[in-house]
Each structure stands twice: as C-alpha cells, then as structure tokens.
Amino acid sequence: MAQLDLYLKLEHDVSILEDFYSGVDEMDAFIHTRLSAFLRAYRNSRFYVLRNTDGIVIAMFVISEGRLVLDEDCKDDLCIKFPGIEDWSEIKDYWEAGFFPSIEIDYLAVRKEYRKQHIGTDIISIIKSLKESTYSYYHPLFLSVNAYCTKEYSAVGFYKKCNFWAAEFINPTVETLRMYRAID
After folding, report:
1. What is the pTM of this model?
2. pLDDT number for residue 3
C-alpha cells in the first residue's frame, strides 16, 4: 500500500463534498443534505477535510468543544487504566462532578475508495494534535464521540482500535454508542 500525502484544511463551504461518498448511506445523506445546516446551527463546530496531492477530498470530520459525562463505573474503569488519575492536577477539578472537557467528534467519514487504509486512525491523531492549536484555552482531557452503531454499519470497532472505551452499554434501540478516550 502506497503512503498517501494528505493535507488538512479547515473549511467553511460544504459544496466541496458534492462528489464525496463514504459508502455509509446515512452518513452520505447527512453530508449532502444536512451538514451545512448543522454547521450553521452549531457555530462552534469546526469542519476539516483531508485532501491528497490531486486535491481530492479523502476524508472529512467535524469537531467541537464537548463535555464528557462519566458515571462512577466509568471513573472506576479510568482508575484501573490510569492508576491515580483522580489525583492528576488536570483531572482533579472535574473528578467529583464527573464532567470533563473534551473534543467532541461530531462526524468523521473517509471516502469509500480509501477506507481500510488507516486514514481514520490518522484523523484521530490529527484531532488529538488540534488540542494545542485549536482548543488550548479549553484544556480538553478526552476525545468523545457518539459512534454510529446499527446492524447495517458500526463504527464501534474502529473507535475501539483507536483506544476508545464505551461510556455506556450498547442499546439496540439507539443508533449510537457514547465512547471516549484520554488525550495523551
């Protein structure tokens, strides 16, 4: 597999996605009919695209300031994964309340022809790096996402590979699963 040279750009015009298709029907329908309205409604969201050297949009994602709510079971899991985390200076102020600042991944899609090439994992690394340049004033501690999870398509496995943990149990009547990971 050849290494792709990808270029990240903050965008404002969703029309650049008119020929972009992820292969996930509901995501594609959202991108082509409702993404523009979403970005107008949620003005603090940031819309990025990754292009290759030919200018083709390979992937897109939307992120925003989030607030991750963790119950006692999730906090216990964190203590197992990161012993002493409740005493870390950046966590301590939020531990009792259970509310933590996060970068929320609102949407993430990779062009159908480029899936299975680890571009999604590259995007997670890019999003983590945006903590310093985009959200330094906000001090996010986690990445969070409502991972798409239906019988036709599930992003849960992808996020698990990227070291995200479920913040709840899978509910077959809900099409997403709340997941999170620490920003290292």
Report:
1. 0.89
2. 60
- Yes or no: say if 94 and 67 are a contact pair by the CB < 8 Å rule: no
Reduce the DSSP state of residue 116 to 3 states and report it.
coil
Q: Specify the range with the lowest mean pLDDT, choosing from 27-31, 37-41, 127-131.
A: 127-131
Half-sphere exposure in the Cβ direction for 177 (13 Å, CA) = 22
Q: How far apart are CA 120 and CA 134, in angstroms?
A: 20
CA distance 106 to 64: 7
* Residue whose token pair is 């750009």: 9
pLDDT given for residue 2 in this prediction: 46
Q: In degrees rounded to 5, what are phi and psi of residue 77? A: -60, -40
**For residues 10 and 50, what is the distance between their CA atoms, to the nearest angstrom?**
9
Q: Chain-wide mean pLDDT for the chain?
A: 90
